[in-house]
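In practice, a research group might receive sequence data for several interacting partners and want a quick structural hypothesis before committing to experiments. The following worked case mirrors that situation: the sequences arrive first, and a predicted assembly follows.
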Amino acid sequence: MADLCLLGTTPLPHRLRRRGSLASLVGDEVIGVVVFPGSNCELDVQWALQALGAETEIVWHRDTDLSGIDAVVLPGGFAHGDYLRTGAIARFSPVMTSVAEMAAAGRPVVGICNGFQILCEARLLGGALIANRDLSFICRPVEIEVVDSGTVLTAAVEPGTVLTLPLNSYEGQFTDPAEDVRIVARYVADVNGSQGRAAAVANAGGNVVGIMPHPERSSEEILGSADGRVLLEGLVAATERMTV
Amino acid sequence: MKVTVHIERRAVIADPEGAMIARSLADLGYDEVTAVRTGRTLHLEVEGDDVESVEKRVIDMCDRLLANPVIEDYRVEVDQ
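A structural hypothesis for the assembly, expressed as tokens:
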């Protein structure tokens, strides 16, 4: 569960921009932002990426053709109402087959908050996210320390850098019984009981990354922090490298 | 056929809700409770005549959707 949203509503048609329309004006790279029923951070992600000069496209969860899209972000929200388990139903949305193919092809795939939960349920990332240790919905800025610069999200960040990003989740406690997940960033303080204080994790290739706090909500000073910007810049740069 | 699926966290996985209930029970004086684990029960109505094949299908449902094997165990009971 993350954030308030309108469960069961579908995006209005004007929010869906089809591939091919409004062709890229800046670079050739296009970052798709996937919308599930119940997603609610897609426009924030789109705004933040566009502010960095990236071309973005909102992708409905029933779309299966991701041709022309070079990277995808699964944004926060409560996909499919978070029913059963967070991300459990979203994992079977038609778009996820294409997302898995992109992940396998080494393309950047980033899940933020609920998107992170979906990537775990889809087994594109190891581990799982369960309710916070203290059963509280945590909604406040937290400090995270980037410990691994070898991923599409952290390539522009020196290890040891501390970033302040807003956390906004109930099922934010990362657990990894197999203990083989690559931790990319750790909470400076143990805020929710996450194993290894993991705030962000990646697959072995570093192209699939899940992060629980929200970089897009801390991408401009007016939002209280611009610390998330460097992460999104890393994603945009990684996507550009893919399309060269 | 009625099929019951019991889903619970694997023992190694934290159960914050169970821990909270255990604390609350202790507050009420039920000191004999040493641990609480929460779970989920799903009741399915399934068409089919053959218990074995129904059970097999429901196990498949558990592996794919109903349970997350990373953190959960499940048990399937078919009631003819």
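Before designing any experiment, note the following. The first strand of chain A starts at residue 30 and ends at 35. The interface with chain B takes residues 84-85, 88-89, 92, 120-121, 126-128, 130-135, 173, 175, 177-178, 193 of chain A (CB under 8 Å).
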